[in-house]
Amino acid sequence: MTIVTRRSAAFVTCCVGVLLLVTAACSPRAVEPSDGRRTEELAALLEAVSRSGSGFQREILADGKVSRSEYERAFDAAVSCMRQQGLEVAGPHPVMGDRYLLYTVRDAPGSDSIQATCDDEYLDFVRQVWTYQQTPTGEEADRIRVEYVRCLQAQGLDVPDDATLDEIDGVALDHPGSGVDACVERYSTRIFISREPEP
Questions:
Q1: Residues 82 and 34 sit within 8 Å (Cβ to Cβ)
Q2: Strands 191-193 and 3-6: what pairing?
């Protein structure tokens, strides 16, 4: 799974999914994973938590899922960790219709290492499981795909009716604008329109 975010280049924005690709280019195109494959990926992720996750994250994921309050608690803990080590951090704040959280770190010497350490201790696995929970599958995914296509077509974009979610996101990334961004925020699970405050 690839997550793409649009943001200003002056700050470092935390990743929200399995991978955050900070780019304005089209994301790689891929076949949508089946429900069975997604189940296997999630099981592998939970196994990784049991082997190498911190005590904080193992406690949250003991039941194999993440509640909204647990998701928020993990973000708050990671941000607190960074601030205790001197980083300027804005957030966490909601994005994508309040489905996800983001924080922003002001770039400084050593900030990447501190951010990675705090995320590893408090957030990484929790965030990944939450993203899996928020990603639609089956009939719901197809309904969202159809509505996403129609939304972009209403903005005058040439999107084939049978386009995959990756292909639809690719079109949206190539045509930023308020109308297209509104479609993205409503339907995409891979592109995050980040309007975070500066730290």
A1: no
A2: parallel
Sequence ranges of the domains in the chain: 3-193
CA contacts within 13 A on the Cβ side of 41 = 14
Q: By CB neighbour count within 10 A (0-12 exposed, 13-18 middle, 19+ buried), where does 191 fall? A: buried
Q: What is the mean pLDDT of residues 9-35?
A: 36
pLDDT at 13: 46
pTM value is 0.72
Please check the confidence at residue 69 and state whether its pLDDT lies above 80: yes
pLDDT value of residue 41: 84
pLDDT computed for residue 112 by the predictor? 94
Question: Tokens 């990484």 appear where?
Answer: 124
Q: 157 pLDDT exceeds 60?
A: yes
